[in-house]
């Protein structure tokens, strides 16, 4: 995958590249920015970064984003001010064309430091650390060396002067915070600044302890072929998700060829520089509604073709999406690439490396890296049916893999805010060590259990297109466990929407995950069978499925006769928690006895008598009811056939009575 990242960062599109995107979107340091005229060496212009329109114009006028980027050190371990140790890391520039340092108006002892004192400290530090000599050692360009001599002279003569301090101004010094920067730029052409940067930055990208003192400890002493670009160069280790392990031998392969000093991954400076650029890309933020959001998504796909080579057309979609000036979502990328490449004869499938990452307080962290082969974006024969005919229920086809996430999985993994279900738990917590729940929301215990149990498998389904990773057993366990939990917690006989919604989703997609019969069709047949059976003495239950559905119908009718003011559906769990069929029937018999006052036995043959007789007489082939629980639930929450027949009979009697009175 290193090869693909390197080639991805080299990608160009009509003059655009990812380095340009980094430069356009990076934030300018807080503080005072000073432009020095290269001919007169006087202060040409300065501006305080207060994010105003005036400062933004200043940034554009002097191309400040590029100047700051190319003159800044790569990180604090890779600077020109690493020795002597006492007082190190004060100078943050790494170029002859700039001088960067923090203001620090209050020292470690909380004493006030004047601007004059601070400039004296920086001037002394330039001398102690050999700042200019280090710059000279990194270039052989005659023009740059001449510029460097002039700049060194003017800094020594004019940095600590009343004129310099006066030009900065009392107002700016009053606004500047303790850790804000003072950044001085010499306005030479950007060409020279980039030439110097290109000379030293590949070497500086290596993982190391010091740029100048320990070079032999972080690169090979000779040139070897780089495994990525197949070009001879001095090789070294990258600090991209890596550490310099010379003091941690357990990180090193001690049996490896000593030619490479025991390190496992050595690359050329160009390769390592591109890896650093990739890290910068991941860290880019964009401000949306006053909030900083990652510009690039997690997970992050890098597309390749079927020929196992980088697919420029697929990855160039990033340049098009960036023009929308919005954070790029993973779903948007997949949709856009699918549409772009769907008519291509060369690219028949979406193949890519997928990186699930996060920018933590400890830096970029990768949680999951995988190669996705033939990603199935489109889904076929996935559809939701309203089997309970409930209102405001979304039906229709699930057309793609992302709809499966928020139309199905998110419905079962939810948080509660009052009685309302919020469905962002899954999307916000993939790979979370501890589930993050918003203030004021509650996480049901069963939901938490099933989240930890199945979130990785669901991630593989949605983001890697691996439908086979979520088995029929997993689907049944997730759905039925959550539905049963909602049944247990039901506190109002009239509130069944959430239970019916989830049960309808489960039944609709049962065939897709279990590769079996269509339960939607089966349930329609079962309803018709029970309706006919109740009025036909010659018809009987003939299968375990019919027994399960009929049992659900019977249980609902029994419990509906309760006179309790706090009647709920939670009692259903008493029935389905039984394991053996004989125990299940026993509980039904006990409840029939409990509500016997509501049933008229042996007086007239009734539909209730018929259903009781059929359920109690049938001997299922399976001796446990676990496999029948979904059908028992569906039978329970479907329109009750006995009640429907009673209502129909009452309507007929009323009609006949009215007609009789009229005659």
Describe the structure.
By secondary structure, the chain is of the alpha+beta class. The chain contains 26 helices and 17 strands. A four-stranded mixed β-sheet has the order 4-3-6-5, with helices on both faces. Strand 16 and strand 17 form a beta hairpin. Helix 1 packs across helix 11 and helix 17 packs antiparallel against helix 18. It is elongated and about 115 Å long. The chain starts with a helix and ends with a helix.
What is the tally of helical segments?
26
Strand line-up in the sheet with most strands: 4-3-6-5
Q: Tell me the β content.
A: 5-15%
In terms of structural class, how would the helical and strand content be classed?
alpha+beta
Range of helix content: 40-55%
Overall geometry comes to: elongated
Number of strands: 17
Notable characteristics:
26 helices; alpha+beta; 3-stranded antiparallel β-sheet; 663 residues; single chain; 4-stranded mixed β-sheet
Secondary structure elements and their pairing?
Layout: H1 2-9, E1 12-13, E2 16-17, H2 18-25, E3 31-36, E4 43-48, H3 53-61, H4 64-71, E5 98-102, H5 115-128, H6 131-137, H7 142-158, H8 162-168, H9 170-175, E6 181-186, H10 190-204, E7 219-225, E8 232-236, H11 269-283, E9 285-288, E10 291-294, E11 300-304, H12 312-315, H13 317-322, H14 330-341, E12 350-360, E13 363-375, E14 383-384, E15 396-397, H15 401-412, E16 415-417, E17 420-422, H16 425-429, H17 445-464, H18 472-488, H19 497-514, H20 519-533, H21 544-559, H22 572-576, H23 581-594, H24 607-617, H25 629-637, H26 641-662
Parallel strand pairs: 3-6
Antiparallel strand pairs: 1-2, 3-4, 5-6, 7-8, 9-10, 11-12, 12-13, 14-15, 16-17
Helix pairs in contact: 1-11, 4-10, 10-11, 15-17, 17-18, 18-19, 20-21, 21-24, 21-25
